[in-house]
């Protein structure tokens, strides 16, 4: 479903943002997902709209309001998100993947509600990697977000290289730094560029981080 589309200019640089979690159904009433709130995606969309970009947001189910002027595409699963990204990548200048894509999905989705029993096993299979699999536009700039609980810098840098990113923004989840949720608490981030150059930001608000990301996009484009 697409909504809230502004008059799209042909000369504006186009930014595609993915946001929120994906959800992966188990049966007609249950699903697995994660804690992503969509707030970072929302903040980046707002900064990008304000900076004059033509912005589309592909979002999983969230309770945030994206800025007026951004085109919003609603999806549920990782595969739906991938389909929407692949369909659009060709015509965008930059993709910012803030979405917390579920890495796994139940291998089988039960057609009827699974009834309770003493024990129930779930077989999960891998979802496709959206960033690595972007087709069509070789020139599209790619920005990833990584949530890490340990070896944040090393793991983030590895993802940057493996997924062919221009920039990765790393969040480290520790007791004091919980990247999830919409709370006002400032958080810590490390931004790594293609040549390994990096900058650490301590205790800054999500909207400030989003502003920095959009400024970096301006330098890339
Ligand atoms: N991502 C993606 N497709 C996936 C999973 C993640 O495009 N199936 C993107 C995320 O949106 C994010 C970046 O890849 O911008 C890093 O996501 P993360 O979950 O940290 O990386 P994973 O490759 O899933 O690694 P991990 O094993 O640490 O979960």
Description:
This protein is α/β, with parallel strands linked by helices and 221 residues long. The chain has a single domain (2-107, 125-220), classed as CoaB-like (Rossmann fold). It has four helices and 13 strands. The chain has helices spanning 39-50, 78-88, 152-162, 206-220; strands at 2-3, 14-19, 24-27, 30-32, 54-59, 71-74, 94-97, 104-106, 124-126, 141-148, 167-172, 187-193, 198-204. It has a nine-stranded mixed β-sheet, with helices on both faces. It has a two-stranded antiparallel ribbon with strand order 3-4. Strands 8-9 form a two-stranded antiparallel ribbon. Strand 12 and strand 13 form a beta hairpin. The longest helix has 15 residues, at 206-220. It is globular, with a radius of gyration of 18 Å. The model has no long low-confidence stretch (mean pLDDT 90). Bound molecules: cytidine-5'-triphosphate. Residues 78, 97, 99, 101, 103, 127, 129-131, 144-147, 159, 163 line the site of cytidine-5'-triphosphate.
């Amino acid at each position: 479903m697409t909504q809230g589309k502004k008059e799209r200019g042909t000369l504006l640089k186009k930014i595609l943002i993915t946001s929120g979690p994906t959800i992966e159904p188990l049966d007609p009433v249950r699903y697995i997902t994660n804690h992503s709130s969509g707030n970072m995606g929302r903040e980046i969309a707002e900064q990008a709209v304000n900076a004059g970009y033509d912005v589309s947001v592909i979002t999983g189910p969230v309770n945030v309001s994206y800025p007026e002027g951004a085109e919003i595409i609603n999806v549920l699963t990782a595969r739906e998100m991938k389909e929407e990204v692949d369909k659009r990548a060709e015509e965008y200048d930059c993709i910012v993947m803030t979405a917390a894509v579920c890495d796994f999905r139940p291998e089988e989705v039960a057609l009827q509600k699974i009834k309770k029993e003493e024990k129930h096993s779930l077989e999960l299979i891998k979802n496709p990697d959206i960033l690595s699999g972007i087709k069509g536009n070789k020139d599209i700039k790619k920005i990833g977000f990584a949530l890490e609980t340990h070896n944040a810098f090393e793991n983030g840098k590895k993802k940057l290289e493996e997924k062919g990113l221009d920039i990765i923004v790393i969040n480290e989840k520790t007791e004091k730094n919980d990247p999830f949720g919409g709370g006002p608490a400032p958080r810590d981030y490390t931004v790594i560029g293609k040549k390994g150059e990096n900058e650490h930001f301590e205790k800054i608000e999500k909207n400030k981080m989003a502003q920095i990301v959009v400024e970096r996009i301006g330098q890339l484009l």
